[in-house]
Amino acid sequence: MGLMQGIIDGVWRYGKMGASWAVRPLRLDSSTHDIITIDHSHHEVHEGEHFFCVYSVASVGALTSPDDLMTLTFVTPNTDKVLHMIGTGTSSNAAVFSIIEGGSGGGSSPTGELSVYNSNRNSNTVSTILASAGGNAAKISYDATAVTGGVTLKSFFLGTAGVLAAFSGCVRDEEEIILKKNTQYQMSIGTTATVPGSILLSWYEDTPKN
Asked: Which domain range does residue 13 map to?
């Protein structure tokens, strides 16, 4: 059986659409005849299971609670749902970016909560992520107190004078972190410089098949 015939046979066997067993034909690129597909994370956007949250401040160094530190803090749900997360952080001056997992203290007394948005604006599905303070669903606490203890998954400098940098570059294949369930996480950017900073978190949620 040739490769193309095998793929077509697989679609007929496993790609049936609904009870009628109707199938949709494979689509090929007109120039290269490559099969047109989308990657899994893009599929999750279409399915309404992909979410994002962004936080920006005009001056990281002007923050006083916590001091010289912007933070996003949340708790993953204690369910079968798994969060596959990437993110970017930027600063227009040298700053330290950190991801802390768990922790014995901190993550409390936030300035407020940020809403989590579904990337598919036609979907009513709500994220299962929880704010670190109050436990509100589909919310992330911002500028909560710095976490103490825990595991520092990443901590490094990003940005130099006039240059923006990213902590993951949104390269999902290599930078995605599958988060532990029922665990607190804090992402932060710290600098004494009075410069802007931003953190963007992006993730999809699914239930493992095994």
From this structure: 1-37
113 lies in the same domain as 33: no
Please tell me whether residues 65 and 84 are part of one structural domain: yes
- Looking at the fold, whether 146 and 186 belong to one and the same domain comes out as yes
Cα 166 from Cα 80, distance rounded (Å): 30
Check whether 99 has a pLDDT greater than 80.
Answer: yes
Longest dimension (CA), the chain: 67
In this predicted model, what pLDDT tens digit does every residue of 43-75 receive, in sequence order? 888 889 999 999 999 999 999 988 899 999 999
Q: pLDDT tens for residues 133-179?
A: 989 999 999 999 999 999 999 888 887 654 555 555 445 566 789 99
Asked if omega into 196 is within 30° of 0 (cis), the reply is no
- Are 106 and 181 members of one domain? yes
Q: Within this chain, do residues 113 and 164 fall inside the same structural domain, yes or no?
A: yes
Q: How far apart are CA 152 and CA 140, in angstroms?
A: 19
Please state the rounded mean pLDDT for residues 84-92.
88
Looking at the structure, tell me whether residues 24 and 116 fall in a common domain: no
